[in-house]
Design goal:
With about 300 residues, the protein is an alpha/beta fold. The protein has a single domain, classed as Ribokinase (UDP-N-acetylmuramoyl-L-alanine:D-glutamate ligase, 3-Layer(aba) Sandwich). It is about 35% helix and about 25% strand. It is built from ten helices and 13 strands. The strands form two sheets. The protein has a nine-stranded mixed sheet with strand order 5-4-1-8-9-10-11-12-13, with helices on both faces. A four-stranded mixed sheet has the order 3-2-6-7. Strand 6 and strand 7 form a beta hairpin. Helix 1 crosses helix 9, helix 5 runs parallel beside helix 7 and helix 9 runs antiparallel to helix 10. The radius of gyration is 18 Å and the shape is globular.
């Protein structure tokens, strides 16, 4: 089995799920819970519980929250390579979830913003492995050098590489051209419909995927409740897979991360794209059925 090395963000998510429509400038009853989060750490956790050999490289604060997040990752079976930051706290994200399951995030990267090339363990970058780089690492100016160094090290080692687009708003602030330039040597790109539009200007996900194959040999676009599509530049039409139905959407936080973790093992094993897409949709359906972005143990 291919070892997957994930470089990315580690967060604590404070999830506030509103019971009713938000009463702006007033009070709305909510359920507030704390969970492990961070896109990179989420992907590593889902990969581990699915049986993959996975290492996660990140940075945490020298606080009890960081220690708890470290122990959680190990509990999932992740080889957690976390550098402890003596000055910055562990990253925190406030996730506002409406009564319909839609989410808005307010993020403080904390220690994530100081991830440096020196934090990357050289022993993890070896031939036969796979690197997945969280887009947040590149978009955050403080950790960008670490992200670029990880891509370079993976290339020198002959590892396959996938990247994701993090989130549409920070991606747009960074700009499509720099992001595409930084990641153009990756073999596989993950984006959702909003992120694909930011990168290409195309509203249609299939059209956006076709444009993106100018930079990436393979592109996956997540279509929310419509499933996902995969496209490569030697095909006339993309491969599409519908989403799995769920009784009730509880929390969409981490659904895209779960999808990535479901897709990657099947893709790395050379299984047909439709099978890899279905595996991704299966994990995404599990993620949206409970509060929090991590798997339930």
């Amino acid at each position: 089995m291919t070892r997957v090395v994930v470089v990315g963000d580690l967060m604590t998510d404070a999830v506030a799920r509103a019971r009713y429509p938000l009463a702006r400038a007033s009070d709305t009853p909510a359920i507030v819970t704390m969970h492990g989060g961070g896109s990179g750490a989420n992907i590593a956790s889902w990969l581990a519980v699915e049986g993959a050999e996975v290492a996660f490289i990140g940075r945490r604060g020298a606080d009890i929250t960081g220690r708890n997040r470290d122990m959680e990752l190990m509990g999932y079976g992740v080889d957690a390579r976390l550098v402890m930051d003596p000055e910055r706290p562990t990253g925190t994200c406030v996730v506002l979830v409406t009564h319909k399951g839609e989410r808005t995030m307010l993020s403080d990267p904390g220690a994530n913003a100081a991830l440096s090339p020196e934090d990357l363990p050289r022993d993890l970058f070896a031939q036969g492995g796979h690197l997945h780089l969280s887009g947040y690492t590149l978009i955050n100016e403080g950790s960008r050098e670490a992200g670029l160094a990880a891509l370079e090290m993976a290339g020198r080692a002959g590892m396959s590489v996938s990247v994701d687009c993090s989130s549409s708003a920070p991606l747009e602030r960074t700009g499509a051209e720099p992001f595409l330039e930084w990641t153009q040597n990756a073999k596989l790109l993950f984006a959702n419909t909003d992120q694909a539009k930011v990168l290409t200007g195309r509203d249609d996900p299939a059209a956006a995927a076709k444009v993106l194959t100018a930079w990436f040999p393979q592109v996956v676009v997540k279509l929310n409740d419509e499933g996902a599509l995969w496209y490569t530049n030697n095909r006339a039409e993309p491969v599409r897979t519908p989403a799995e139905s769920v009784e009730r959407v509880v929390d969409g936080t981490g659904a895209g991360d779960a999808f990535t973790a479901g897709f990657l093992p099947a893709w790395l094993e050379g299984k047909p794209p439709a099978e890899a897409l279905a595996s991704g949709c299966r994990l995404a359906s599990r993620a949206i059925s409970h509060l929090g972005a991590r798997p339930r143990l």
